[in-house]
Specification:
The complex is a heterodimer of chains A (381) and B (607). Chain A is mainly alpha-helical and 381 residues long. Helix content of chain A is 69%, strand content 3%. A 3-stranded antiparallel beta sheet of chain A has the order 1-2-3, covered by helices on one side. Chain A is globular, with a radius of gyration of 21 Å. Chain A starts with 13 loop residues before the first helix and ends with a helix. Chain B has 607 residues and is α+β, with helices and mostly antiparallel strands. In chain B, a hairpin with a 4-residue loop joins strand 14 and strand 15. The chains are: A mainly alpha (381), B alpha+beta (607). Chain A binds chain B through residues 37-40, 98, 100, 102, 108, 110-111, 113, 209-210, 213, 216, 227-228, 231-232, 240-248, 256-263, 277, 281-282, 285, 289, 293, 296, 323, 327, 330-331, 334-336, and chain B through 3-4, 6-7, 9-11, 13-15, 17-19, 22-23, 25-27, 29-30, 34, 90, 93-96, 107-108, 110, 165-166, 168-169, 172-173, 279-283.
């Protein structure tokens, strides 16, 4: 009966492929804009992000294709192995990791650097799907313990890297996956309440100083003087300035003053939205948000149609991962959230992020393209 | 649907940022931050001597400053592929303010070269800089290290003193202060740092004008030129009232003495303001001048370096001073003399002795109380109450001047009275210092005030005054002005150190007939009087010698000579004083004046 596991090209959701390609094209053009606007001798001018980004899209496409070709149930069968490998890599970061700006998040692989936390996000979605696949004890409070542990261990490790932004992604991910798999909202609310109560403890003992400063810079922005604003919330201030200066129609391709000045640090990766907003104005905003919403719509549609619980969880997990990541990223660039190192999926420069999102996407398409999903619910009812 | 809410919030946020007021404000603030306004300091006017030789001028000098934040930046270069990178010192966090370590190399370079490694580019550049500065490389490194350590120590202390939440801000603020590494460095070193700033991170070139003074300037000339210096705290308010900003006041230098001070406002010029319109990337698009800079005016002094040298040679090693001026314009040609702390031979006052006698004569003539010719009989050393040097016998005013007869002049002084003497002093402008801008300038006696020994004037004091002793102090400059007014037909022009500025319209204040008599006496002095055979005849000079007793019990004297040449059309006035000599004015001072006039004539006289 597993014969039906063969890939059906006809069933691949090409709407999703088209939207993602549009997002990637947008990302590439933004990188070209960064390169063209960069002042001579600057890091952006010497380090051609656009071409590198194109290379990463290629690598991501290959990896995504592999993820599409391998039947996702095989992947689920080996979920614990994947998860263990991911954890091992995370632990390895603490041993041989490379640190940049005080955070150890990368493993050096020679030509490129790997960020295990990125891979771990997908591995966690997969392992959650695998764990919940054949059981329904998540309907009890006790049954929630194992999923929480599965998500909690990598989350804790990532938090200690430290990488607050990525770690926090696991929270909505876990909750939405549990909700999609039928956990009771009452139980989930209870856990949230416990989290709220314990958050001061985490804030004062679990976070590094600079993380606290960033959160404070966000929360207490109004109290800061001009000088302090410049120094503590400088990045955010410059980013908001860039977005606001764009106006309704933007400055035009490679013409944004903040982009040309390189005034917003990390504007090629985490703060790529500032380039878009500054140069493309409100049409750029409409394009980006429209593309993301289309993507989420198609993913939700896929999840709704999927009748294999594990597949459903997989798609939901990836959807939540992308949505939360995109939102957290965009919110931080306009001062709606604290500044964390979360890239904008598909658009921001960054190898690990692109690789992971493409693999996740491959898995999602994989779920949609296996006719075998039709046997799902009834067979196990 | 729940998912859409935060997204709508985000869209609303971008919408509200990009439309309306905040977008406009952002554009404006970006415009402001890219345009750089700067003050352009004026160049201080230079000073030249009569012949056009530069005495003092502004030159661009270079200071090297240090930005302590940037000293923590290490510039790495890969030996394999040449890729370069930068690591910055991690600032210590607020709760653990420990001294940070020098940053290590970044992650290894990805290039495939077998022995690729990171190399710090700074030390090689520093070695070159040290060579250009003329110091040992180790010394420079140490100076930089000391500056870095002290600024970090101060910054950490400042941060620790503040509230915990502001630690980082305070730290950055304090670290951001530029500190001076070296002042007035060689041009080559400044250019090296300026051109290769990527190699000299943390070192900043600052161009500041430096006042230079001609290196071989004579000390007595240097006193006239004067000095410049930074503004003192108590002067800030006065300058601010002139409309100067505090930042400018602390950057500028003002005249502190000499002509630098007396002509400070003309020399200073006024500041300019300009805006550099810059592209966001930093490239300068346009220079826009908001306010034109007005450089300081160049000032030509009336003094001549050549004559100052002639005066110095004429004086030789004697203590004293020499003043030469042009009686037609009252421009001071030379103001020479020994110049030590608190004393300048040409402007410090002392007792004039007999060179004062023409003034007594003029006062008496003006009052109409001069002793009639032949009415007095000088018995020389037998005379009382004041002795004379020779037996002059029955004597006229002209003979009294040429023979310097004390008997005639104490009588004339008493006869004229304090009022007439004081009026003549005022007319001949010897009653107060001239304010020519030499800080040591002294002298001037205003006899309209009560006498130094009480009012009314006693006869013996008036008698002493008549022969230039007692309650009177005159500087050589005063004496020179007195003789210049006699020489130029009685026109009291104010003396000046600046060429072409004197007021030549002054009307004569002395009666021509009186002047003729006095000048006849002065001419006779050279031919047959106290200054005969001293070498002054060949210049057709006229003049008067003087020998002032310092104290009754002190044998040393002030030897004076004051005169002008040529007698019929005076073009130069010379006054010489030699202090504490065992010799009369005729023996000591007159030959010096003659030697000076020789040099003056050789130089072509006064144009």
């Amino acid at each position: 009966m597993i014969r039906d596991d063969a890939l059906s090209v006809r069933r691949i959701d090409f709407r999703i492929v088209a939207v993602v390609m549009a997002l990637c094209a947008l990302g590439y053009f933004l990188q070209v804009s960064v390169r063209m606007a960069a002042p001579e001798g600057s890091m952006e001018a010497r380090w051609d992000f656009a071409t590198r980004q194109l290379r990463w899209y290629g690598v991501g496409f290959l990896a995504g294709t592999v993820a599409l070709l391998v039947p996702y149930r095989r992947v689920l069968d080996r979920a614990y192995l994947l998860y263990a490998a991911g954890l091992l890599l995370l632990l390895l970061v603490f041993v041989i990791g490379v640190s940049v700006k005080g955070a150890r998040r990368w493993i050096d692989l020679g030509p490129a650097r790997l960020q295990p936390s990125e891979l771990m996000k997908v591995a966690t979605v997969v392992v959650l799907a695998r764990y919940i696949r054949f059981r329904d004890d998540q309907r009890t409070l006790r049954g929630l313990a194992i999923p929480f542990l599965l998500a909690g261990v990598p989350m804790f490790l990532i938090l200690r890297e430290p990488d607050l932004g990525t770690a926090l992604l696991f929270v909505p991910l876990l909750f939405s996956v549990l909700y999609a798999s039928g956990a009771r909202p009452k139980h989930l609310a209870l856990v949230v309440a416990m989290g709220v109560v314990s958050s001061p403890v985490v804030y004062f003992f679990g976070l590094r100083d600079y993380q606290r400063q960033r959160v404070e810079a966000f929360l207490f922005r109004e109290e800061l003087t001009e000088v302090q604003k410049r120094q503590e919330g400088w990045q955010g201030e410059q980013a908001r300035l860039a977005v606001a200066s764009g106006g309704v129609f933007g400055h035009g391709f490679a013409e944004g003053p903040q982009n040309r000045a390189g005034a917003v640090p990390e504007h090629q990766t985490d703060f790529i939205f500032t380039v878009l907003a500054e140069e493309w104005g409100l049409p750029g905003l409409a394009l980006l948000v429209g593309l993301f919403w289309l993507l989420f719509w198609f993913l939700a549609d896929l999840a709704r149609k999927c009748r294999d619980p594990a597949g459903k969880i997989l798609v939901t997990g990836v959807l939540v991962l992308l949505a939360v990541q995109a939102y957290v990223n965009l919110a931080m660039t306009v001062g709606l959230g604290p500044i964390t190192g979360v890239p904008l999926p598909f658009v921001s420069y960054g190898g690990s992020s692109i690789l992971t999102t493409f693999v996740a996407l491959g898995l999602v398409l994989n779920v949609g393209a296996r006719p075998g999903m039709d046997f799902g619910a009834e067979d196990f009812a | 649907m729940l998912l859409a809410l935060p997204w709508l919030l985000f869209v609303w946020r971008v919408w509200s940022l990009q439309t309306g007021e905040s977008a406009r404000a952002a554009r404006q603030s970006l415009q402001r931050s890219f345009d750089r306004e700067s003050s352009v300091p004026p160049r201080r006017g230079s000073l030249r001597d009569r012949e056009g030789r530069l005495l003092a001028w502004d030159e661009s000098g270079f200071d090297l400053l240090v930005d302590p934040r940037e000293l923590g930046v290490v510039d790495w270069e890969c030996t394999g592929c040449g890729r370069s990178g930068i690591t910055r010192e991690e600032l210590p966090t607020a709760t653990a303010p420990v001294m940070p370590q020098r940053p290590g190399p970044p992650e290894p370079c990805a290039c495939a070269a077998p022995d690729a490694r990171w190399r710090d580019r700074a030390p090689a550049a520093r070695t070159l800089l040290a060579e250009l500065l003329g110091v040992e490389a180790a010394t420079l490194e140490e100076e930089l290290a000391v500056l870095r350590e002290t600024s970090w120590t101060r910054a950490l202390a400042a941060a620790a003193a503040g509230r915990a939440r502001h630690h980082r801000t305070l730290l950055l603020e304090e670290l951001g202060r530029l500190r001076k590494l070296r002042a007035d460095v060689p041009r080559a070193a400044a250019l090296e740092v300026y051109a290769h700033n990527d190699l000299h991170r943390g070192i900043v070139v600052d161009a500041e004008p430096v006042r230079r003074i001609a290196p071989d300037l004579d000390a007595s000339m240097a006193v006239l030129v004067g000095t410049t210096g930074p503004v003192h705290a108590e002067e800030v308010d006065r300058l601010r009232a002139e409309g100067l900003s505090t930042a400018r006041i602390y950057r500028m230098r003002i005249g502190r003495s000499g002509v630098e001070r007396s002509r400070d406002e003309a020399l200073r010029g006024s500041w300019g303001r300009e805006v550099e319109v810059r592209e966001p990337g930093g490239a300068v698009v346009e220079h826009r001048v908001v306010e034109e800079v007005v450089h300081g005016r160049e000032i030509t002094l009336s003094v001549s370096t050549a004559l100052a040298e002639a005066a110095r040679n004429a004086l030789g090693s004697r203590h004293g001073g020499l003043v030469a001026l042009d009686p037609r314009t009252m421009e001071i040609l030379a103001l020479a003399g020994e110049s030590v702390e608190g004393f300048h031979g040409a402007v410090t006052a002392c007792m004039p002795g007999s060179v004062m006698k023409p003034l007594t004569a003029l006062a008496a003539l003006r009052a109409g109380t001069e002793p009639p010719d032949g009415s007095l009989f000088c018995r020389g050393r037998e005379s009382r109450p004041i002795r004379c040097t020779h037996n002059h016998g029955a004597i006229s005013l002209e003979e009294a001047i040429s023979g310097s007869c004390n008997v005639y002049f104490w009588r004339a002084g008493v006869a004229a009275g304090a009022e007439a003497l004081s009026e003549m002093g005022r007319l001949l402008r010897i009653d107060r210092p001239y304010g020519i801008g030499v800080s040591l300038e002294g002298g001037g006696t205003d006899w309209s005030q009560e006498s130094p020994v009480g009012r009314p004037w006693k006869r013996e004091h008036l008698a002493n005054l008549g022969i230039g002793q007692g309650p009177i102090l005159m500087s050589p400059l005063h004496v020179a002005v007195l003789y210049a007014i006699i020489a130029n037909g009685g026109r009291p022009i104010a003396p000046t150190l600046v060429r072409g500025e004197s007021d030549r319209t002054a009307a004569p204040v002395l009666d021509a007939g009186h002047l003729r008599r006095v000048r006849a006496g002065l001419e006779a002095t050279i031919v047959e009087g106290t200054a005969r055979n001293r070498g002054l005849e060949r210049h057709r000079a006229a003049g008067k010698t003087g020998t002032a007793q310092i104290r009754a019990d002190d044998p040393s004297l002030h030897a004076w000579f004051a005169g002008y040449a040529p007698a019929e059309d005076p073009r130069i006035v010379v006054v010489v004083v030699v202090h504490q000599q065992d010799g009369s004015g005729g023996e000591v001072a007159a030959p010096i004046a003659a030697r000076f006039l020789d040099a003056w004539e050789r130089a072509g006289g006064t144009r």
